[in-house]
Amino acid sequence: MAEEIKAQSIQKHMEIDQIRDDLVVLKDGGLRAIMMCTSVNFALKSTEEQDALIYKYQGFLNSLDFSIQIMVASRNFVIDPYIKALQLKEREQANELLRIQTAEYIEFIKGLTEMANIMTESFYVVIPFAPIAIKKIESKTKLFGKKGQAETKLQEQEFLECKNQLWQRVEFVASGLRGCSIKSAPLTTEELIELFYKFYNPNAKEDLEITKAKELRIQ
Fold first, then answer.
1. Rounded to an integer, what distance in angstroms lies between the CA atom of residue 190 and that of residue 183?
2. CB within 8 A of 113, min separation 6: which ones?
3. pLDDT tens per residue, range 3-38
4. Could you tell me the end-to-end alpha-carbon distance of the chain, in angstroms, rounded to an integer?
5. pLDDT by residue (tens digit) across 61-113?
C-alpha cells in the first residue's frame, strides 16, 4: 500500500503524461523525442582535428531554429553479465593455456571492480516540439499571471501532425550530429520507459537502455 501511495505521489509531480509511438507526451501536450548518442574522444585528436570538430559543432548549433537539451547520465557499471560471459568462454575453451589465462583475466576484472568505482556514461539529446495551441496557452498564462501547469490533451489527428514535424527535427539533428562524427538513434517506446524508470529507481537492474539502444541500431 505504501509503495502504491509513493508511486502515485511521484506520478503527480511528473510532467510526463504518457509514452507512446516512441515519444514522450507531456501533461501540457508538448512532445519530446530522445536520441541516444555516441561520444567523441576529443583529447586524443590532433589540434587540427579538434579545430575542425569545433567548427562543425558550431555550424550544427547555429543551424538549429529550435532548442535541444544535451544530457549525460552516469550509472555504476554492473560487471556481472560480463563476468558470466567470460566464465562461459572459460568452460568452452579447449586449450588449457587459454582456459587458465581466461580464469586469471576474470579474477583481474573482479579485483579491479572491487578496488575502483567504475561508471558507465550514456549521452542523450532531447528534441522538443510544442503545438501552436500549447504556445497560445503558455502566452495567456504568462499574460494573466496564472500559476501552475496547464494540462492540454491533443486530438489524435493533431498528435500525428505534431509527431511528423517532430520527427523532421529528429532527422535534422541526426544529420547534423553525423557531420560531427557522432552516431545517434532515437529511443523506442520500450527504451524510453526503461530510461525513465531507472531515473526514478536508481537501484533498478542495469539493462543499459535495452543494451545501448540495440548498439545504436547495429551502427
1. 20
2. 77, 79
3. 555 555 566 667 888 899 999 999 888 999 999 999
4. 44
5. 999 999 999 998 877 777 777 888 888 988 888 888 988 999 999 888 888 77
Distance, CA of 90 to CA of 1 (rounded, Å): 46
Residues 6+ apart with CB under 8 A from 176: 60, 63, 64
Q: Would you say 23 and 17 are in contact if contact means Cβ atoms under 8 Å apart?
A: no
pTM (two decimals) = 0.70
List the one residue out of 151, 194, 188, 197 whose CA is nearest residue 29. 151
Burial class (CB in 10 A: 0-12, 13-18, 19+), 107: exposed
**101-149 residue pLDDT tens:** 999 998 888 887 777 777 778 899 999 998 764 444 444 444 445 444 4
Angle in degrees, CA 206, 68, 160, rounded to 5: 85
Backbone angles phi, psi at 123, to 5 degrees: -115, 135
Extents of the domains making up the chain: 2-73+122-218, 78-117
